Amino acid sequence: MNKILRCPCGQPHYVSSSQAGQQLTCTSCGKPLTVPTLRELRDLPDAAATVSQPATSTSVWKTWRGPTMATFVALFLITGGMSLRFTLQRLNIDTSYDEETEIELGEQLFDQYGPDALSMTWEQYQTVGIGPKQRLPFMVWRTIAWHTTILASVTGTIAAICLLAALAVWYSARRAARRLQDDPRRPAVDT
Ligand SMILES: [Zn+2]
Predict the structure, then answer these.
(1) Whose CB has fewer CB within 10 Å in the chain, the N or C terminal residue?
(2) Domain encompassing residue 64
(3) How far is the CA of 29 from the centre of ligand 1 (A)?
């Protein structure tokens, strides 16, 4: 066990029992300092008891805060990235195309055809599917757009919660570091 030997100038020196009776040179004032005998050494304060964990701002991260912060930041990056992807996907879907556009286009088409071609086109439409037979592409795209919006908002919300949680952990670490500064001997464990 290391002991603390204080020089008359105030500088502490850490000495072990193997150094009993030896001469030291103070690192602060440069004067010689004699380490006491083994018996006297026992009465000196323990180095471990007085010098607990150094009160650094990093020690507050060595508790639950480090892993918790890492988890929230990782989750934020993952869900945030997903949300961004879904948002970009949604923006790429043109939903301005609706029933009215479809009808308009259909009418334009009918104008171009004569009666024969029209009946043929009508039959084609029936097989390809207008109405209840098959969903039209713009309807399918609208559903995809809706789903993408939901996915973007859900992942975005999770990302926001993770960001807030990470900020809360960071704030708690800052407060704990400030408490450590006030009282360095107080261990970095926590509230
Ligand atoms: Zn000294």
Answers:
(1) C
(2) 59-182
(3) 4
